[in-house]
Write a structure and sequence with these properties.
This protein is an alpha/beta fold. The protein is built from five helices and nine strands. InterPro entries: Flavodoxin/NO_synth, Flavoprotein-like_sf.
Length: 174
């Protein structure tokens, strides 16, 4: 069975062009839907230093991290990753790709030989360059087709998630 590993940010987020306060981040919502569909565990990447609650301040922090190629520290409570051959990796699309906290995770774990199924939430950029960036960061891993969910529709993404999960299962059984 695969494991879901994801990063998500709650608090102020952009939804339908307006800033809204979320008690649960969009990526966490989608991760929960995938976990329920597959009846598997989901582990959250939690920043040691939380991102600002303000949407604009968080956007600015993410931009600075990308420009600086920062590697934010994080906590992750997960069983031994060597027990998993498949990782469903979730993240918001920040500045055209995955957040730098995901880059921190990718550098900390050797994912050689593992299959990664990426999914992201976004407000218009879909997966951006994240698939190519994953391939560069994890040259020994197999990066499969990703799922992009518009963040504003995360709470209503059941059909998209079910379709993607069905594709994952059918693809694995070929």
């Amino acid at each position: 069975m695969p494991i879901i590993i994801y990063f998500s940010r709650k608090n102020e987020n952009m939804l339908y062009g307006e800033i809204k306060n979320l008690s649960k981040g969009n990526t966490a919502v989608v991760a929960s839907k995938i976990a329920k569909e597959l009846n598997i565990e989901a582990a959250e990447i939690i920043p040691v230093k939380e991102y600002p609650e303000s949407y604009q301040e968080a956007v600015d922090a993410a931009k600075k991290e990308k420009l600086d190629q920062a590697r934010p520290a994080y906590r992750l409570t997960v069983p031994n990753l060597s027990d998993y051959n498949e990782i469903i990796m979730g993240y918001p699309n920040w500045w055209g790709t995955y957040p730098m906290i995901i880059a921190s995770f990718l550098e900390d774990y050797d994912l050689t030989g593992k299959t990664i199924y990426p999914f992201c939430t976004h407000e218009g950029s879909a997966l951006g360059s994240s698939i190519d960036d994953l391939k560069k960061s994890c040259p020994g891993a197999i990066i499969e087709q990703g799922l992009a969910i518009h963040g504003s529709k995360a709470d209503r993404a059941n059909k998209s998630v079910k379709h993607w999960v069905t594709w994952l299962i059918l693809n694995k059984n070929k």
